[in-house]
Amino acid sequence: MKIDDTLVNQVRLKQEAQETASDKKAKAVASPEAGSNGNVTLSPLVAQLKALEAAANGQQTFDTEKVEAIKAAIRDGQFSIHPDKIAAGLIDSVKDLLGTKPA
């Protein structure tokens, strides 16, 4: 099992976009003469952010049925843990992280 931070990155991008939009809005309010012509242009990044937001909204972050099955197994004493698989997954994740880290 690998740890996937795709959703975390998507949320971070969304928050950064909201902060950037808030900064631009504050500047426009502070200096109305700068945007007095009424034309607005958006960067291509906005389209990418909207696509990521739509994708994130359409995805379920976890499988509810699987979570309920695990809860029931734990409650009934049927859940088994495989430490060797957990350790192997953690080691693989660390190797991946170290491999992508700039030197």
Automatic annotation (TrEMBL):
<keyword id="KW-1005">Bacterial flagellum biogenesis</keyword>
<protein>
    <recommendedName>
        <fullName>Negative regulator of flagellin synthesis</fullName>
    </recommendedName>
</protein>
<dbReference type="GO" id="GO:0045892">
    <property type="term" value="P:negative regulation of DNA-templated transcription"/>
</dbReference>
<dbReference type="InterPro" id="IPR035890">
    <property type="entry name" value="Anti-sigma-28_factor_FlgM_sf"/>
</dbReference>
<comment type="similarity">
    <text>Belongs to the FlgM family.</text>
</comment>
<keyword id="KW-0678">Repressor</keyword>
<dbReference type="GO" id="GO:0044781">
    <property type="term" value="P:bacterial-type flagellum organization"/>
</dbReference>
<dbReference type="InterPro" id="IPR031316">
    <property type="entry name" value="FlgM_C"/>
</dbReference>
<feature type="region of interest" description="Disordered">
    <location>
        <begin position="15"/>
        <end position="38"/>
    </location>
</feature>
<keyword id="KW-0805">Transcription regulation</keyword>
<keyword id="KW-0966">Cell projection</keyword>
<feature type="compositionally biased region" description="Basic and acidic residues">
    <location>
        <begin position="15"/>
        <end position="26"/>
    </location>
</feature>
<keyword id="KW-0282">Flagellum</keyword>
<keyword id="KW-0804">Transcription</keyword>
<dbReference type="Pfam" id="PF04316">
    <property type="entry name" value="FlgM"/>
</dbReference>
<feature type="domain" description="Anti-sigma-28 factor FlgM C-terminal">
    <location>
        <begin position="40"/>
        <end position="92"/>
    </location>
</feature>
<dbReference type="InterPro" id="IPR007412">
    <property type="entry name" value="FlgM"/>
</dbReference>
<keyword id="KW-0969">Cilium</keyword>
<comment type="function">
    <text>Responsible for the coupling of flagellin expression to flagellar assembly by preventing expression of the flagellin genes when a component of the middle class of proteins is defective. It negatively regulates flagellar genes by inhibiting the activity of FliA by directly binding to FliA.</text>
</comment>
